[in-house]
Design a protein that fits this description.
338 residues, alpha+beta, FAS1 domain, 2 domains, 7-stranded mixed beta sheet, 12 helices, 16 strands, 30% strand, elongated
């Protein structure tokens, strides 16, 4: 479909399926300019009119700034035909996010039996409509710029209630509000990941005053400040810039050594790619099980184990044994920072 003699803006203005989105775009001259521009190519994920039926009639209209941000969040930078999306984990948008150091906010792409989904919930219902200045895909839900990391975690208590309890027991929200971050990578352990530490370690961490200090140290260790690492992009706002935006080859492993909020303790991340598929390991063996939860102020990488600083003395990472960790072992790994 499409007609490559028309711009993206002209095509959505003419289509009977995208009248609501086009009408909003018309109220924002900057967005009109972007979608008409032939200086660069873009990919528009345009919500069909039916997508707007989710919005209740009596809904208070959001601010003009919010609507403009939301419109720009539907615009991918560069050309992403469907076949390229199949090999992308995230893609940059025209929405620059101050809380990511001014870098483009990203959309998360995933491919499943139901086709291509963006940010878990919006499905591509028509693909590869050609325009003079890029490509249009139609989607069935409006793409809302993502909320803060903390807010996203609270939306899934069935997965993260132990982590939420840990935040509560350590007054962590108060601590994190005092930290000035330009983006972050937050390694978010599932309930099973905490369970895997074993009953003794959990009793110590959650039910003793001393243990709570160690629990807070773990929570700090699980956040990489000013370093937002997605499967296919790295926004490095740290003082020690790492290899930035290195080209992605078909098969290889990339290694990142990220700072954490726990003193000098670092967390290592290995991304290995083969035939367009990537897997992420943290500190050698912990697996990222849900990658690239995009957030306003960073990215969430959901992990199947609670990442802990490696043993002192040898750089070895804890092995994938039958589960559980001795309280003494936990203390020896963290005591330098407690």
């Amino acid at each position: 479909g499409g007609d490559s003699s028309y711009t993206i803006y002209e095509l959505i203005s003419k289509s009977k399926y995208t009248t609501k989105f086009a009408k909003l775009v018309d109220e924002h001259p900057h967005v009109v300019d972007v979608l008409n521009s032939t200086k660069a190519n873009y990919t528009l994920f345009v919500p069909i009119d039916k997508a707007f039926e989710d919005i209740p009639e009596d809904h208070k209209k959001p601010s003009k700034e919010f609507i403009e941000s939301a419109l720009l969040y539907h615009v991918g930078l560069g050309e992403y035909p469907a076949r390229r999306i199949l090999h992308s984990y995230t893609l940059p948008t025209a929405l620059d996010e101050d809380l990511l150091g001014g870098e483009p906010q990203r959309l998360r792409a995933s491919v499943g039996l139901g086709g291509v989904k963006l940010n878990f919930y919006s499905k591509v219902v028509a693909a590869d409509i050609a325009a003079k200045n890029g490509i249009i895909h139609a989607v069935n839900h409006i793409l809302v710029p993502p909320p803060y990391v903390g807010r996203i975690i609270t939306l899934f208590p069935d997965r993260f209630s132990t982590l939420l309890l840990a935040y509560e027991k350590t007054d962590f929200v108060k601590f994190i509000h005092g930290v000035n971050l330009k983006g972050s990578t937050v390694f978010v352990p599932t309930n099973e990941a905490f369970h895997w530490l074993g009953p003794r370690a959990n009793a110590f961490l959650f039910n003793t005053d001393r243990g709570r200090e160690y629990l807070k140290a773990i929570l700090k260790y699980n956040i990489a400040p000013n370093a937002t690492l997605y499967t296919d992009a790295f926004y490095d706002e740290t003082d020690s810039k790492q290899q930035q935006n290195a080209p992605v080859h078909e098969s290889r492993t990339e290694h990142y050594d990220l700072p954490t909020l726990l003193g000098e303790a670092h967390i290592s991340v290995d991304i290995s790619r083969i035939f367009g598929f990537a897997s992420i390991k943290v500190n050698g063996f912990t697996r990222v099980v849900v990658p690239n939860g995009v957030a306003k102020n960073g990215v969430i990488q959901v992990v199947n184990r609670v990442p802990l600083p490696p043993h002192k003395g040898h750089g070895g990472h804890q092995s994938e044994n039958d589960g559980g960790i001795e309280v003494e072992d936990l203390i020896s790994r963290l005591e330098d920072w407690v």
